[in-house]
Design goal:
elongated; ABC transporter transmembrane region fold; four-stranded antiparallel β-sheet; Rossmann fold; alpha/beta; six-stranded mixed β-sheet
């Protein structure tokens, strides 16, 4: 929680004024029993109606002023809590953008989503309640005890005895529930992860008829969360009846002591009523304080989880000085190896590859051979052992923004964002003109179907591009990368949904681009790589062949087997 407190500095004024007005409200509340005692002892005792009306006016005034103070305090507390949460949420989101893919993979998207939503809401609620009640409730409790001493010493000893007992109950429940609330949030992560996975894979689930199995699995996770929440809730619920029992016992003792002292003439009836009112105020405030502590305990547990996100190291140290090189399109892998965090075996081993500007490099291999991992090292999505050079300089010497501006990436999974076609294409280059966008669409073989859309470039794009077919989404993502006009273009199996004629036309259009980018083309189709300047063949992350098509067909058994499986033995011969 300490690392989150600096985000509250912008609201220091609100953090002072909110509790201050709450303390003023509490001070007025403490005066009410004394006024009531005067009404009973003076007004009713002497049958002085004018005095009674006068004191009733005082009570109304105290209530009105207290209400104004409460509203002002609520305003400042809400402003501080909402602003603080917004600042922290913004900081967490900005920090997430700096994390490496390895760190994001380790944290998990469901956990990060929970901490940005549910956890932050709990923190906001806790800050709001703390600013309003954290000082008010103790002030009323101890203020009531002090006021009781001003009325009668012997009766006030009941307050001295009961308050530590109530404090022990509240602290005991708080210490027990705090770690359990952390467990509740962890189990909520699992439930959210299951929901996210099911929504993302709903087509696969229905295609394989796994609805009932997924329902049972979700029911198990949900039942674990529900059981723990019920268990913690039952223990938390013990606080209210325990405090009520202690307060009512204290009230009985107070009535007994008060009756004796009234009978002896040492107390008046109005003073006894005032003492009982102070005891009732203590009861009310302790119930509030108990709920406050539970909410703060939950908020602290959530704040700790949010803080741990901010403590995740980015894993991508930035260079102190700008890179002296230029992104001319050259790429070199110098004895590069890579292992995913937690993986049992390396995904890449001993990669040596030199690519000159403007060349087209094909990468082929079986499933899981490390093709996508290889090209993800160029824009430095991961850091590898060995050296990856772009423009003759180690990628670790490049500022990430400059490096990734020099690389256009079309990922294996075509991902579009909610908005319009124009807005998605402008991700490649924000300053691109309509002419640039249409040129990129033409090269990506997407111009024809975009022209037919209602609105053209301003046609809507649903979440994830669900209103387009798989081939249309792939062509739009290729166009988005082409708008960038970057010296390096990575096509990570991004034409798998296209027919052979459209794919061939797309490859010819890329080869004819005026800025002649260096192209890394990953494909499962050997036909897509026939014209590549170099073809790298991977098997289980190890390079087993490098050369042109004819050379590999003659000297690389793995490539020959891939080619035979797609074209037959006669084509190999």
């Amino acid at each position: 929680m300490k690392k989150l407190l600096p985000y509250l500095r912008a609201y220091r004024k609100e953090c002072v004024l909110g509790p201050l007005f709450k303390l003023l409200e509490a001070s007025f509340d403490l005066l009410v029993p004394l006024v009531m005692a005067s009404v009973i002892d003076v007004g009713i005792g002497r049958n002085d109606r004018a005095y009674i009306l006068q004191m009733c006016g005082v009570l109304i005034l105290l209530g009105a002023v207290g209400l104004v103070c409460a509203l002002v305090a609520q305003y400042f507390a809400a402003k501080a809590a909402v602003g603080f949460t917004a600042n922290v949420r913004r900081a967490v989101f900005v920090h997430l953008q700096t994390l490496s893919f390895a760190a994001l993979d380790e944290a998990g998207p469901s956990t990060l989503m929970t901490r940005l939503t549910s956890d932050m809401n709990q923190v906001q609620n806790g800050v709001n309640l703390a600013l309003r009640l954290l000082l008010r409730s103790p002030l009323v409790v101890f203020g009531s005890m002090v006021m009781a001493f001003t009325i009668d010493l012997h009766a006030a000893l009941v307050f001295v005895a009961i308050i530590p007992l109530l404090g022990a109950v509240v602290c005991g429940v708080m210490l027990w529930t705090l770690p359990r609330y952390r467990q509740v949030q962890s189990r909520l992560d699992k439930v959210l992860g299951a929901v996210r996975e099911n929504l993302a894979g709903v087509r696969v689930i229905r295609a394989f008829g796994r609805e009932n199995a997924e329902i049972r699995a979700f029911h198990g996770l949900n039942q674990d969360l529900t059981s723990l929440q019920i268990f913690v809730g039952r223990v938390s619920a013990l606080m209210n009846p325990a405090t009520f029992v202690l307060i009512n016992l204290a009230t009985l003792v107070l009535l007994w002591v008060g009756a004796i002292r009234v009978d002896t003439g040492r107390l008046t009836q109005g003073q006894v009523v005032a003492l009982i009112n102070y005891m009732a105020q203590i009861l009310t405030e302790l119930v509030k304080l108990a709920n406050l502590i539970l909410n703060i305990s939950r908020a602290l547990a959530c704040a700790g989880r949010v803080q741990r996100v901010l403590e995740i190291p980015s894993g991508m140290p930035q260079p102190a000085a700008p890179c002296p090189g230029a992104a001319d399109g050259s790429v070199e892998f110098d004895n590069v190896s890579f292992t995913y965090p937690g993986a049992g075996a390396p995904s890449l081993t001993g990669i040596r590859l030199r690519v000159r500007p403007g060349e087209t490099v094909g990468v082929i291999g079986g499933t899981g051979s490390g093709k996508s991992t290889l090209v993800s090292l160029i824009p430095r999505f991961y850091d590898a052992q060995g050296v990856v050079r772009v423009g003759g300089q180690d990628v670790r010497q490049w500022p990430l923004e400059a490096l990734r501006a020099a690389v256009g990436v079309v990922p294996q999974q075509a991902q579009l964002f909610t908005g319009t076609v124009r807005e998605n294409l402008l991700w490649g280059q924000e300053t691109a003109t309509d002419a640039d966008l249409w040129a990129a669409l033409t090269a990506a073989q997407a111009k024809d179907f975009v022209e037919q859309l209602p609105g053209g470039l301003d046609a809507p794009v649903a979440q994830g591009g669900r209103n387009f077919s798989g081939g249309q989404r792939q062509r739009l993502t290729v166009a988005r990368a082409l708008v960038r006009k970057s010296p390096i273009l990575i096509l990570d199996d991004s034409m798998s949904a296209l027919d052979l004629a459209t794919e061939a036309a797309l490859r010819r259009a890329i080869a004819a681009l005026p800025h002649h980018p260096t192209v890394f083309l990953i494909s499962q189709r050997a036909a897509s790589l026939l014209s590549a300047d170099q073809i790298l063949v991977l098997e289980d992350g190890v390079p087993v062949g490098l050369g042109r098509h004819q050379d590999l067909l003659a000297g690389c058994p793995v490539y020959r087997e891939i080619y035979r499986s797609q074209f037959g033995e006669e084509a190999v011969s």
